[in-house]
Amino acid sequence: MPPQCEVKIGNETLFFETGTVAKQANGSILARQGDTVVLVTASSSPEPVVGKDYFPLTVDYREKAYAAGKIPGGYFKREGRPGEKEILISRLMDRPIRPLFPDGYMNEVQIIALVLSADQVNDPDILAMNAASAALSVSDIPFMGPLGSVRVGYINDEFIINPTTQQLSESQLNLVVAGTAEAILMVECGANEFDEDKIIDALNLAHENIKKIVEVQKEFQNTVNVSKQEVNFKSIDENIYEKTKNFLGDRLIDAMTIPEKLESYKAIYELKKELMVQFEEETEEVMSDVNKSFEDIEKKVFRNHIVTNNKRTDGRNFNEIRKITPIVGVLPRAHGSSLFTRGETQALVSCTLGTWSDEQKIDDLDGETFKSFMLHYNFPPFCVGEVSPLRNPGRREIGHGALAERALKAVLPDDDKFPYTLRIVSDILESNGSSSMATVCGGTLAMMDAGIPIMAPVAGIAMGLVKEGDRVIILSDILGSEDHLGDMDFKVTGTTKGITALQMDIKITGITQEIMKQALAQAKEGRLFILHKMLEELPEYRSEMSLYAPRILTYKVKTDKIKDVIGPGGKVIRGITEQTGCKIEIDDTGTIQIASPDVNSANKALDIIKEITQEPEIGMTYKGKVKKITDFGAFVEIIPGIDGLVHISQLSNERIRRVEDVLKEGEEIDVVLIDIDSQGRLKLRKVGVNR
Question: How far is CA 529 from CA 321, 360, 461, 473, in A?
Fold first, then answer.
């Protein structure tokens, strides 16, 4: 029997099995929770990769259509390039795993997760994250794990571990946490204005369950008992390191503390170029050691400056925010726009309002859904002064856009109050730290400029960490260099009431809950400061939408009136559309949406629909049309399809002998509805008749 293990987390049991399938991979795990099954493999190249200065790890998550009993759509009828959901889960798996590979291990590693069965109850993403750790643990690939991953929801004032798909749709919290038994490694969160203390409680609960998953993986690893590959870490030649250090002297910190990013980077580049000239006659191996020495010294100089001088390289205090300049209404034809500048990071953000026909259709394992709020983030090369081809959005751009979208989604108005499709686009024009948080701030202002009645404005801030021994320094509003050379990138978004999104990645083996608490408190202080600056530019959302934005009117009719609005073969609704130029949609509940760039046209269409669907009301006056004349009176249509009888005695104050003496068919007259009998028949009286 193949090695197996299991652990109960929340209300479900997590099963791991190895040695059954994919046996030629370095490690493979068949993981199951309910009827959701994921296969995760871990493979490595036999030799280290030469010439790369980063760890060559690739993580790919793919969903098979057959897992949900479906055939893919499209012409080719097979799975194509990964969708946004698959890319985001690939990133989610990558981030906590990456820091757990030992220094010096440069063999190429590939993690592949395939969803083989999906029960629409248990999400495969958390299952895949845990299986990836287990696959690495039972493989011969060096790995400083295992790690565990859980999702935390919040329903009816109670936290739920690994909520079902249905529970998650009702939850006020979607918190994914990954970590080792000792500390948290990664956090990804969307929330409905949660306060910091409640987030800490959720993290504590998550970590307790993570420890259970880690423990069972350790036991599983001991059962399999695979020998790990040796890591041949070649240390830098001490003589080369000392020569490099002596050459740089104080010149490196002088270059790093130049306030302007490009000037600082240029000075560092020129210094490194000058250093390389000193060793240009040496071997390639020596040049590699020089390069590694420079990088190590750069990191140490940066960290020593912060720890020793209690100042950052740009001269700010640890909790100080860079200068903020928000401007709204910068694009004359956009429905809403803003230019948000913080230090040397700048985002041009636009907001476009659309109708139901602009919704994004998504077809995945969860079924067919429609998305009415989209945020797209673009990071062109010029924003960092580089030259490179413009490509389709990469994983980083998709991830940053998803974070900002999650941050703003929490404050959107309900669909019944604001039935628009919204698209926000953030084009980063300059970048020196946390362009995703600039996107959140700019996105809030663009929506307010568009007149969207958001529940509250949202701001975002990126926090950093430098940990040297027992000294822990939290940095607010980090620079690009502080992200690169520091130990943590912790992004927090929220309103004055609470948090709407979190994202944390760390480069060390984990941080304690006490550090998290300190970082959240300092982030709140910075977030409120940024919010204040934003609201100085635009205190509240505009009372009127842009002239160029569509107007959507919503009207509800009785279900038995739907056929009257549509008409035979859609004749009536097409006629209204042709007459007014509006888009009109009606659903099975009788909800009608009318959209038009011209509010007068929308109101005209609404008036026609009201006339078609209105109910007769006693005492009301109507302009009716004579449809039929009889000996005892005339039948007058007061509402399309609804007529009533005006008795001959109610046609005149004087006695008349024949109806034809005062009326003719097709004539329009004003009548009053005086009664509706038990059979629903309408009795009318001509206006002005008092009998």
Answer: 8, 35, 10, 20
